[in-house]
């Protein structure tokens, strides 16, 4: 992906931003209309949505029998529904689960290889769409929504996933001359917040002794300047911050 992006930027003079992958969802509106949603930015106002539908996959995993417990855990952690277990000979088993497509496109395969020491293999096929309690998590940087960082996820996982995303963004976005506030919101409710501390210059370095009121005056002047800077300043979000959403979905 990085090679393709560099070639497009160099040869075609295109300005690209890589973001985390998403799946196609469907929504049913109160007027009976059904729409397909390809990205969180396409979601209409929640008040007009009657039902969310997410794609469900049938996943078959073949592993040595000693890894059954570990595989069961990662599948249930991804909202998987157990289907069956078939034994092949005395050493291998095939475990069947129904798992939402959105839960396996990030790092499910990597996690499977990790917990099975590389012996686990999987295949999946799309079964259809099912109703689910989904919400849109909006990511705001200094009060402005960043569509490329917003995501659709299950309501039960929304808050914890939002906190992980903000922690990753706090590490990836460079410090500014003013404090940067990061928020995650569901609808009009803020569910998580992180702050990126400002780079502070020591404006009192030249004050040697004397009245403390002079130092306070300089600090207050700096504080007012940073307040004005925050109102007009723009935060440049690096490419790594957009891809940090991928790491935020994995287990810690």
Strand content: 25-35%
What is the overall number of helices?
Answer: 6
- Main pleated sheet: 6 strands, antiparallel
Uncertain runs are 228-233
Mean of all residue-level pLDDT scores: 82
Spatial separation of the terminal alpha carbons: 25 Å
Structural class: alpha+beta
Order of helices and strands: HEEEHEEHEEEEHEEHH
Number of strands: 11
| CA-atom Rg in angstroms | 24 Å
What does this structure look like?
The model is unreliable at 228-233 (pLDDT under 50). α4 runs antiparallel to α6. The chain has 6 helices and 11 strands. A hairpin with a 3-residue loop joins β4 (81-88) and β5 (92-100). The strands form 2 sheets. Strands 1, 2, 3, 4, 5 and 6 form a 6-stranded antiparallel sheet that branches. The protein is α+β, with helices and mostly antiparallel strands and 252 residues long. The protein has helices at residues 2-11, 68-77, 108-115, 155-172, 212-232, 239-248, and strands at 25-29, 34-37, 49-64, 81-88, 92-100, 121-132, 134-141, 144-145, 151-154, 180-186, 189-196.
Keywords:
33% strand; 252 residues; 5-stranded antiparallel β-sheet; 31% helix; 6-stranded antiparallel β-sheet; 11 strands; single chain; 6 helices; alpha+beta
Task: Please write out the topology.
Layout lengths: L1 H10 L13 E5 L4 E4 L11 E16 L3 H10 L3 E8 L3 E9 L7 H8 L5 E12 L1 E8 L2 E2 L5 E4 H18 L7 E7 L2 E8 L15 H21 L6 H10 L4
Antiparallel strand pairs: 1-2, 1-3, 3-5, 3-6, 4-5, 7-8, 7-9, 7-10, 10-11
């Amino acid at each position: 992906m990085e090679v393709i992006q560099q070639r497009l930027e160099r040869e075609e003079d295109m300005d690209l931003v890589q973001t985390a992958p998403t799946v196609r969802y469907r929504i049913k509106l109160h007027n009976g209309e059904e729409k397909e949603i390809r990205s969180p930015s396409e979601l209409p106002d929640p008040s007009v949505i009657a039902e969310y539908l997410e794609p469900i996959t049938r996943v078959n995993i073949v592993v040595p029998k000693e890894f059954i417990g570990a595989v069961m855990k990662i599948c249930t952690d991804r909202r998987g529904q157990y289907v069956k277990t078939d034994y092949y000979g005395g050493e291998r088993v095939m475990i069947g689960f129904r798992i939402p497509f959105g839960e396996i496109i990030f790092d499910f395969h990597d996690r499977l290889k990790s917990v099975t020491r590389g012996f686990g293999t999987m295949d999946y096929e799309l079964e259809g769409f099912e109703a689910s309690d989904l919400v849109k998590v909006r990511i705001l940087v200094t009060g402005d929504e960043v569509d490329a960082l917003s995501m659709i996820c299950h309501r039960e996982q929304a808050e914890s996933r939002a906190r992980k995303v903000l922690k990753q963004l706090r590490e990836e976005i460079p410090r500014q001359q003013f404090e940067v506030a990061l928020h995650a919101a569901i609808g009009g409710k803020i569910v998580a917040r992180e702050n990126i501390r400002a780079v502070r210059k020591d404006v009192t370095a030249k004050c040697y002794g004397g009245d403390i009121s002079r130092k306070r005056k300089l600090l207050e002047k700096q504080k007012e300047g940073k307040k004005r800077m925050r109102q007009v300043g723009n935060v440049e979000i690096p490419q790594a911050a957009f891809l940090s959403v991928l790491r935020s979905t994995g287990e810690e």
